[in-house]
Amino acid sequence: MYKKALEKAIASLHSEGRYRVFADIIRHKGNFPNATYHRPGGTDEIVVWCSNDYLAMGQHPVVLQAMHEAIDTVGAGSGGTRNIAGTTHYHIELETELADLHGKEAALLFTSGYIANDATLSTLVKIFPGLVILSDELNHASMIEGIKRGGGSKQIWKHNDLADLEERLKALPYDQPKLIAFESVYSMDGDIAPIGAICDLAEKYNAMTYLDEVHAVGLYGPRGGGIGERDGVMHRVDIIEGTLAKGFGLMGGYIVSSATMVDVIRSYAPGFIFTTSLAPVLAAGATASIRHLKTSQVERAQHQERAAVLKRKLAAAGLPVMPSVCHIVPVLVGDPVICKQISDELLNDFKIYVQPINFPTVPRGTERLRFTPGPAHTDEQIDDLVKALSTIWKRRDLKLAA
Ligand SMILES: *Cc1c(COP(=O)(O)O)cnc(C)c1O
Question: What is the mean pLDDT of the chain?
Fold first, then answer.
């Protein structure tokens, strides 16, 4: 009986074409985006086109140096939860660095961005009884999960739609606690929220704001503070959430906010309290990465330039590249089975690795390939990619852009 249920669950994924297969790869330090792919029965040398280590900070000498020093100083793990022996000076330094990055009073580390969202959003409703969370319809799974687990009242507003958001805010009593939860860069479509205008509405209707800057920290703003910094509105957002795993190239998540807000989440969120803190070596690497990106513009400039080149060349080849105003380059396929097949063909025939993006990550019918060019992708690798896609599109007689 139990075995049947398990098998049925997997079979339904297969029949919908969205059974996930993980590619077993080893990235080459000093030589990303090149990697070795361990396929059944052998290995291939491949080019990675879907990493979230956007700036290749995961191989930056400054980061590696800091991590080597830390492991030689304190050893491997942190040895405990933050409350019980697991707060090292590396954690404190990193939180200070993050608070400064976003111009906030305090920061709080979590073991991932997912946990930061889940733990914070599920805890807020305990602090503000009657809290209504107004959540953008395209918010990441970690925010949705946190809001659901909190068990409070929620409203889903139309993606980036200020009129819909205002209508909902207006309908709620002025004194009822409200939180607007949204992202800056939406990483599947590559569009960006009007943060300032959302803050205007929050002020007008007495709401707090919660902004996920996971796909923007390190990448945007003169010091890598994200879209909020780029747009000069960072100070207006109540809680900013970010990751150390994407632009900064490591692992871990965080929030920054007022000292009191951080003190409350630190004291009440089980997802923060009852888990071992980040390994000090990760904290040391993250601090080095953030410090580097606070002053260096080179990585950000190259990143944007590479993304622009890829978009231009895909469009010139008539491939259905979706509109994106950032570094994300999605190409529409619109069918989960074909999307997976194209990804397999790219890997097996062209040694190009891009994971298919299917439901529930994106709505059904909008399945896509999502390319993340980085500073280290060469012109030749871009040309190879465009050529490979053109070949597959022709071979399969797929629709080209108008
Ligand atoms: C990746 C992601 C997260 C989770 O961050 P991790 O550090 O990888 O757990 C949160 N929010 C968004 C929008 C993301 O894309």
Answer: 97
